[in-house]
Design a protein that fits this description.
It is a single chain. This protein is mostly beta strands. It has two domains: about 180 residues, Immunoglobulin-like (Sandwich); about 100 residues, Immunoglobulin-like, CATH 2.60.40.1080. Strand 12 and strand 13 form a beta hairpin. It is elongated. About 30% of the residues are buried.
Length: about 325
């Protein structure tokens, strides 16, 4: 009887250990880091996958949101990568073909855009190993970079909304390529699909660009004429070689008339404009125009810089007028005696 009890305990322990090992084997976890760079009218999103679990990753998706209550996933992406087109219609819908230049990936990986057809469609962007076996996955504890997607700043279907700025809120959609969710799929040693894992993308570049601004000329002599002003800008970023530059505003310390500031469309890269060389004479400082620019890198980090153009008060004329008025008052007083 004792021998049977010992045998039962040993078997139970073996089963428990086997169960624990099996449970440990399918522990999936990952981090995906992303940063963006400007390239012409596009942003290139660069992804790095870090396998923090203990099984290989052979498949991951950008823009996948999981609803725990319904037990289903939903696509998040609205903008499509550069150069897509519709392919053949299949059982699950119309195929979307990506241009070779729209994505990049390491050897033995391939990309695919999956989603709904039409202007209001939403999508997943998926990378997976090819051929589909565990040999080319990302091993446990390893990191793999070299994944990227090139996406237009403005999607003509969604115009005029822009999505380049990860800090946008309110009615504007956040840039899901930067701030959305991801899903990774893991395999066991027998090349069996075993587990999906969802997580939040992490922005790797969190440092704003440096921005300096000078205006020429920066001082105007009052003649009530419009003077061309040129902005010279220097910008540098740790990750993005070409941050976006926009003119934010031109303000004035005086009440000005319409047309005193001649400028194109704000929040575009305008570096020349005209200012009226005038002031109202009420302030010793004269008129001061304040010009503000913003630099935005591909990860949504922002820096603002300001510079001024002044139309100084002509003190010599003011003093001459004051002396003349004082002399006039003095002569008037002497005549009244």
């Amino acid at each position: 009887m004792i021998h049977h009890s010992i045998k039962f305990l040993i078997c139970t322990a073996i089963l428990f250990c086997a169960s624990s090992l099996a449970h440990a084997e399918i522990a999936a976890a990952a981090r995906i880091l992303v940063f963006g760079t400007h390239q012409g009218g596009n942003i290139v999103y660069h992804y790095k996958v870090i396998n923090t679990g203990n099984v290989a990753i052979h498949d991951f998706v950008i823009g996948s949101e999981y609803d725990q209550q319904l037990g289903d996933e939903y696509p998040q992406l609205l903008r499509r990568p550069l150069g897509w087109e519709y392919g053949q219609e299949g059982e699950t819908g119309t195929e979307i073909i990506l241009a070779p230049a729209s994505t990049s990936q390491p050897t033995n990986w391939t990309s695919e855009l999956i989603g709904q057809e039409g202007a209001a469609g939403s999508y997943y962007l998926q990378w997976e190993t090819t051929p589909a076996d565990n040999s080319y996955g990302i091993p446990a504890g390893q990191t793999l970079s070299g994944f990227s997607a090139t996406v237009p700043l403005v999607d003509v279907r969604l115009f005029p909304r822009k999505y380049y700025n990860a800090t946008q809120t309110g009615t504007e959609q956040d840039d899901i390529y930067l701030t959305g969710n991801f899903k990774v799929k893991t395999w066991d040693s027998q090349n069996n699909d075993i587990q999906n894992y969802w997580g939040k993308l992490e922005i790797e570049d969190t440092t704003p660009p440096s921005l300096s601004l000078t205006l020429s000329p920066n001082e105007l002599r009052k003649n009530k004429k419009h003077v061309p002003i040129t902005a010279t800008i220097a910008v540098k970023d740790d990750h993005d070689p070409q941050p976006e530059i926009n003119l934010v505003s031109i303000t004035c310390n005086e009440t000005i008339e319409e047309g005193d500031i001649k400028v194109g469309k704000l929040f575009t890269d305008i570096r020349q404009f005209e200012l009226k060389a005038d002031h109202d004479g009420k302030s010793h400082a004269g008129r001061i125009y304040t010009v503000t620019y913003i630099a935005i890198d591909g990860s949504g980090n922002q820096t603002m810089a300001t510079a001024t153009v002044s139309v100084p008060h002509d003190r010599r004329k003011h003093e001459e007028r004051r002396d003349k008025d004082e002399k006039k008052d003095k002569d008037k007083n002497e005549r009244s005696r």
